[in-house]
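Example 3.2
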Amino acid sequence: MRRLLLGVVCLALAGLPARGAPAPAEPVNGLSVRDACILGVVEGVTEYLPVSSTGHLIVATHLLGLESDQPLTGPSGQPLWHRHPSPKDPAGVPLTPTLAADTFTIVIQFGAIAAVALLYWRQLLSMLNGLRGRDPAGRRLLRNLLIAVIPSAILGLALGRWISAHLFSIGAVVAAQVVGAVFILWAERYRRRREAQAPAADPGTELTPRQALNIGLLQCVALWPGTSRSMMTIVGGYLAGLDPRRSAEFSFLLGLVTLTAATALKSYESGAAMIQVYGWPHILLGCVVAAVTAALAVRFLVTWLSRHGMAVFAWYRLAFAAVLAALMWL
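Structure, written as tokens:
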């Protein structure tokens, strides 16, 4: 954990302006330290647990009062853009507090990414050596991760705007939480029945490209907010014959690829405007909090799944959905 904290601090310092560089503009609509910490904890704890970080962050931003469709402007009155006007979209999409909060919750995923990168650096080094022709197992692992990320990358790019417009709501999260809970209970029953009927798979057994693709196709379902990318990929590991621990670890590494791509894209699209809204200090704080809590969550999940499986998360999802439904309807 000490090594993780040192790495996160180094990443945070790397994002600070260099000495002599122009000072960043003052935030337009400040985010409190409390809000940044809450969002960092929610992101870190839920990103790799099979409960849906997106669903929890939608609820958190709603309860913290960070939602508003009022267009934001900069210090001199110039409009801030989520998507700048273009020939294909002359009106563009103005940046609003809701969109700024959504971008913030995605950008602080860099903290969760850093946690997995530092915890699983040996696997990353193995894949790097595989690219250099020095580690066949690392090359095969990298191949499987790339195959598994392709379906969600294609579908996410094709449907991303539609999903943001129609599925980022508490009602959609409630429905996804319930469906996901039922799916977890089915998957756990399937896994236990398989383990009772057949000997455990050799820990050295690797996924085939076809199995990696199947896991990637299941990951597409997690584009529905509230479903959980972690849940879908862990279940995909079950169906491929992996035990809970190895399913979780493949999910973490796949998340490293998926989250890095999604976070980089979102940062490129509207990260600069979001920085104008919230300022660097709160963004870095959210990343650091997300990194520390994600590391703790990853360690907890691997230990828990090895002993108990995922069923407890199904009951949590049902309870969470019931509370959300009560708040929404009452």
